[in-house]
Amino acid sequence: MRLSTPRIPALTPEQWDAPATELLSNMAIHGADLNVFRTLANHPDLLRRWMVFTNHVMFKSTLAERMRQLIILRIGYLCKSEYQWGVHAKMAQSSGITENDLRAIQIGPSAPELDETERVLLQATDELYNNDFVADDTWRELSARFDKRQLMDIVFTVGQYNLVSMMLNTFGVQLDPGLHGF
């Protein structure tokens, strides 16, 4: 599904307008040089507002980093977003996600390497992707492991990265140097 050329270009810093420069220079340590942000530099107002939600999901969520990355990687895989997979497979290493874990995430909830919490997270991700709804049995299993805020963060993490996958795939955001797809 990855496009070989972008539909919307990733702008170089010299091409950024003043609002994009202000936004992206303030986030230099968070990857402003990544093609995803350089692409969104084409629409600074959207980038500014999207970053508020992105910052919650990535840095202020009630979910542990490993749990967030499991969800993000699974929805990226389901959406065939090689860019999302590449960025988050690299990021996930800091939360202890291994090559074996990455293979299990691709297999999904039936992967024998997953513990029960990981299995139910991937199950919920699959259900949200396939049905836009978490089934009652899965919800009960999630509720036994996560509090209400975490349950909300699970759903919003899946939704955020489903949206991001759509954007990356449709705009043709190209893999950054050193990133690998599936």
What does it look like?
By secondary structure, the chain is mainly α. It has two domains: about 15-60, no CATH class; about 65-170, AhpD-like, CATH 1.20.1290. Helices cover about 65% and strands about 0% of the residues. It is built from nine helices and no strands. The protein has helices at about 20-25, 35-40, 45-60, 65-80, 80-90, 100-105, 115-130, 135-145, 150-170. The mean pLDDT is about 95.
What coarse outline follows from CA principal-axis ratios? globular
For CATH, the homologous superfamily of the largest domain is named as AhpD-like
Which fold name fills CATH's third level, the topology of the largest domain? AhpD-like
Low-confidence stretches: none
Distance N to C terminus = 12 Å
DSSP strand content: under 5%
Radius of gyration: 17 Å
Number of domains: 2
Q: Report the structural category.
A: mainly alpha
Under CATH at level 1, the class of the largest domain stands as Mainly Alpha
